[in-house]
Design brief:
Elements: E1 2-9, H1 16-29, E2 33-38, H2 53-64, E3 69-72, H3 75-78, H4 83-93, E4 97-104, H5 105-109, H6 117-123, E5 126-129, H7 135-139, H8 142-147, E6 151-152, H9 154-159, E7 168-171, H10 180-186
Parallel strand pairs: 1-2, 1-4, 2-3, 4-5, 5-7, 6-7
Helix pairs in contact: 4-6
Length: 217
């Protein structure tokens, strides 16, 4: 079975930091490939300042070029909004794959705010990648208090005889200061460089159209 890392996010925009941590996690965990799940809408993030889905997908495709990374907005087709529902749907749709959820320490710090976060941890192993400035908050988080009993080293993860969850693998990565927030501040009109025909989804192979704008009747 193919071992696949899942990195979810807004990718608003995608940048070299996403690529770097993904490739690092793939090597550390012995993964075959990774999927970037570009979220149509993140319940924990405001819609203001969010670029169109097609532009975010194109920016992710540019960063994933020539790497074993597939860019997808499959949540649109699955009809899921929350991570727990997406992960369960992916496991049903791709039964011959084994998944690992990849997240930065910034997400672990607020993981306890996610819908059914403990159920997420029971669905698949979680690999947490260090992020500058977030390690202390992640270590002190309610999620870490629950997850620390399930810690595994990367070597222990690769060598264990059976696939099970919960499992928490902490990956120490050289801090990467790049962030989508800083990129948006430096270039507020970045999305304009990623306009064009609808990009094609790497998993569903269907074109990714932006939703029609809502107008008053």
């Amino acid at each position: 079975m193919k071992l696949t890392g899942l990195l979810g996010g807004s990718f608003n925009p995608a940048h070299g930091g996403h690529r770097a941590i993904t490739l690092f996690a793939m090597e550390a965990l012995g993964l075959d490939e990774a999927w970037w799940l570009v979220s149509p809408g993140n319940p924990l993030k405001p819609e203001a300042g969010m670029a169109p889905l097609s532009a975010r997908v194109r920016s992710a495709q540019a960063q994933a070029r020539r790497a074993p990374i597939k860019v997808t907005a499959i949540e649109r087709e699955l009809g899921t909004r929350y991570t727990i529902d997406t992960l369960r749907a992916l496991k049903r749709r791709f039964p011959r794959r084994r998944f690992v959820w990849l997240m930065g320490a910034d997400n672990l710090a607020q993981f306890h705010l996610w819908k059914d976060w403990q159920a997420i941890a029971r669905e698949m192993p979680i690999a947490v990648i260090a992020r500058p400035g977030y390690d202390d908050a992640a270590l002190a988080s309610p999620a870490m208090a629950w997850l620390r009993r399930y810690r595994l080293s990367a070597a222990g993860f690769q060598n264990r005889g059976r696939w099970s969850a919960p499992a928490l693998i902490e990956l120490r990565f050289d801090p990467d200061p790049r962030s989508a927030t800083e990129l948006r501040r430096a270039d507020p009109d970045w999305a304009g460089r990623f306009s064009g025909p609808p990009p094609r989804d790497a998993l569903t192979h269907s074109p990714i159209h932006d939703p029609a704008p809502v107008t008053d009747a």
